[in-house]
C-alpha cells in the first residue's frame, strides 16, 4: 500500500549524537513536569555524592588518575539507588524514579534523584517520614557503624561564628540555614514541607574543634547510608520546584573557555600573540569526570517509567521514521506509513464509547497503541462552522479578548521569572490593552507573585517566613506599582484594579523622589573626583558655570554647543555624579530614547515631562501642580536635556509654561524667570538632526528649532570645540586600547557581545525605502516565518458623521493603513531578526522607542527578544500585543491597532538612527533624498 505524504523526516536515533543536543537537556524536564502534573505526587528528593576517600580506589586515583573508574563507580551507585526493585526494599510505595547527573569542576559526579510515590503518600504523616528519614546523630554505643557514617558524611559545618569563611556563608549567615532548631517531633507545615525531628539528645560530633549536635545533621536514610557509605541527602517534598532544581544545572549549558593561539619561533623567545582579534577559539569545557562519563555513553538523565510524546499533525503530514540507508519506495509502501497514533485516536473515538469520554492526553491510560494495526480516522463533519471560524480568528489574534493576555502571561511563565512577568503585566496596563485588568489579575496573580516570598525571606533574613495569600497579593501589587511609577503611571489609574495597602506604601512618600535619591553617595564621590580630573579646560569652564548657577539657586538656562566627540555626555556624567554625591536630584533627559540610555537614570523628555505628542504654540505638559512629577521637579537641582535640537520649539515653550505654573504658588521662587527659575542645561549640535516638520521647507524647519524660540534669548551658550576622541596622547591611547580590548574579551566570554548584525544597519531617507529593504533582506534571512495579524477597529470615542458609508472604514481598509511609528497589520518575523521598538515600554530597563532588539523566540501571544543597543545590551524581555492609536494628523479619524509594537530593522530611517551606536552603516542615497546635510552626523 502506498500513500502520499507532504512531510517526511529522518530521525537520528544515535544515542551519542542525541545526548549532545540542547533539546536533550530540555526535553526530560518538561516530560517530568507533565508526569508529575497528571499522575503521582513527587515525594522524595535525594542527592547522592560518591565517596572519594574509598580505600579500594584511592591508589588508582592518586597515582594514575583513572577517571573512567570514577565514572563507572558513580554509574554503578546511581543505577543501584535508582533501581526500583532495590529502592522498594528500603522505601515502599514507589511508582516512578527520575535522576540527573551533575558534574562539578572538582570532586566526583553526583546525582539528584526524585522518587515518585503512590497517591496515598501525597499528604505525608509522621508515620510515613520517621521510618525513612532521620536528622539525628545515632547512639554511639547502640550502632557504632551508623554513628561513624553520620559523623563522616552527614554533618554540616562547622560554619557561622566558628568558621566565617565556610563556603556556605553569605552575608555572615549560613545559606543552608544551619544550625536548625531542636524539635521533639516531626511535623508538616502549612505548605506541605516536613520539619524533621531533631531532639536535644546530648549526642554530638566534634569537627575542627567544634561540637556539632542534631541541629547540624543533614537528613539521611539509615539503610542507604550504610549500604553505599557516601553522602546521601534524602528529603521529603511535594513541590514542582524540586523538578526545576533537579534540571537547573544541566539546562545552564556547558562551561565555556576561550583559548588564545600564540606562536614561538625560538624556544628562548617569549610567547608572542598572533592576530589577537581573530585567532581565538570559543570552546566547550568538560571536566575529566564528565568527559569519561560521556565517552562511556552513560545517560545524563534517567526516568522510569518512560514518557511517550503524543504526536499531532495535519492530514497526510504524519511523521515517518526511516533509516539513512532505507529505500524510499519501501518506506512509503509500509502499512504503518498511512497510520499514526493521532489517527488511531480519532478512529477509536468513532467506534468506542468509553474513548469518547477521554481526552487525547488521558487516552494512553486506558488504551495501548499497536503500531502494526492500520486504521482510518473519523473526521468531525458535525463541527459547527461558526465556532471553528471564531477559534481560528482567536488563534490568529484577530479578536479582542483578554484571554489572549492571560495566555500570554501563562506562556511567558514557562521561561521567565516573576520579575519579567510583572513587567509584562505592567506593559499591558500602560498600553491600555486590557479591557478588564482586574479579570486578568485575578486569573494570573499566582504566576505574577513568583519569587515574592523568596525575596521577602532574603530581605528580612527569615528563612521560615510565612505569608498568607492576601500578603503575597499585596506585595505583588507593590512591585507592579514600582514598575508603573517608573513609567509615570500608577495602579490608581485603573479604578477596578486593587491598590497596595497603605500599611506597606505610605501615601506621603513620593517614590519618584526616592528613586532619584537612591544612589550610593560614597561611590559617586569617588567617581566625581575621577571624572572631574579627566575634564579638559573647556569642559571645566562649562562645569564651573553650571555648578555656580546651581549653588546660587537663582536659576539659569544654558546651551552646551558641541559636535560629536567633544565630550558632552562625559560632561553630563560629571555634573550628575557631583550633585548626586551631595544628595541633590539631577534629572537626565534626552530627545530620543537611544540617547537617553547613555545617561545615568536617563529618560526621554516626553516620558519624564509628559510632553504632548501633537505640539502647538499653546501646548502645556500634562503635569498638575500637586502631582508627584511636579513635586519631583520642585526638589530637582539641575535638569539636563541632551539632543535638544531635535525637539520642536513648542515643546520647550510648553515645558516653560508648565514650570511657571508649578512655581507660581511658591513665594520663595521667581516664577517669572524662564522655566520658573529652575536651572536647566540643553545640549546638542544644530548641524545634526533638527525637528521634523511634516512637508515643511528648510525655512520651516529652522523656524521650528530652539534657536528660533523666545527662550533662546535667555540661553547662555557654552561651546566645546576640542575633539577628545582624536586628541588623546599616544601613550594614554595605548593604555586605553589595551583596557578596552581586555573588557571586550571579558564581555565576549560572558556572552554580552552580540552577533554580527547587532551593530550594523542600513540608513535610508524615507519609510517606504526602509520597508522595501527590510522585505528584501527578510526573504533572504534563514529560518521559519511567523506571521502576526493585527486587530484594527475605529475608536469608540470616534463618532462618524451621519450619512458616511460605514463600509469605507471596514477592517480591510483599516488593515491597509501604513503610518510612521505604527506597526503594519501583518508582521512577518523570524528568530534572530533585528527589530525596533515603536513605543516606550520600560525606559528604566532600556526599552524605549527606537531600541533595537533581536528576536529570541516567537510565541503565540508574546515575543521574547534581547536588547542589542544602548546600555542594557544582553537584557531579555517579553513583548505582548498592545493597543496603539496613531497620532498622525494625516488620518482623518482615530482608530486602534492591537499589534506587537515592533518593526523589522535591518534598515532604518536616518532620523531613527539618531543616538544609535553602530559599527557599520550603509547609506541608501536614493533619488528621494536630495538633501544630505544630516549625513555628517552619521560620521560623527
Automatic annotation (TrEMBL):
Q: Which residues form the DNA helicase Pif1-like DEAD-box helicase domain?
A: 535-757
**EC number, as in UniProt:** 5.6.2.3
Q: Which cofactor does it need?
A: Mg(2+)
Reactions performed catalytically: ATP + H2O = ADP + phosphate + H(+)
Q: One Pfam match, by short name? A: Pif1_2B_dom
For this UniProt record, the keywords arranged alphabetically read as follows:
ATP-binding, DNA damage, DNA recombination, DNA repair, Helicase, Hydrolase, Nucleotide-binding
An example Gene Ontology biological process? telomere maintenance
InterPro entries, alphabetized: DNA_helicase_pif1-like_DEAD, P-loop_NTPase, Pif1-like_2B_dom
**DNA helicase Pif1-like 2B domain spans which residues?**
814-858
Gene Ontology terms, MF aspect = 5'-3' DNA helicase activity; ATP binding; ATP hydrolysis activity
Q: What class of enzyme is it?
A: isomerase
The record's SUPFAM superfamilies line, in alphabetical order, gives: P-loop containing nucleoside triphosphate hydrolases
Q: Which PANTHER family match?
A: ATP-DEPENDENT DNA HELICASE, PTHR10492
Q: Which family does it belong to?
A: Belongs to the helicase family.
Its protein name is ATP-dependent DNA helicase
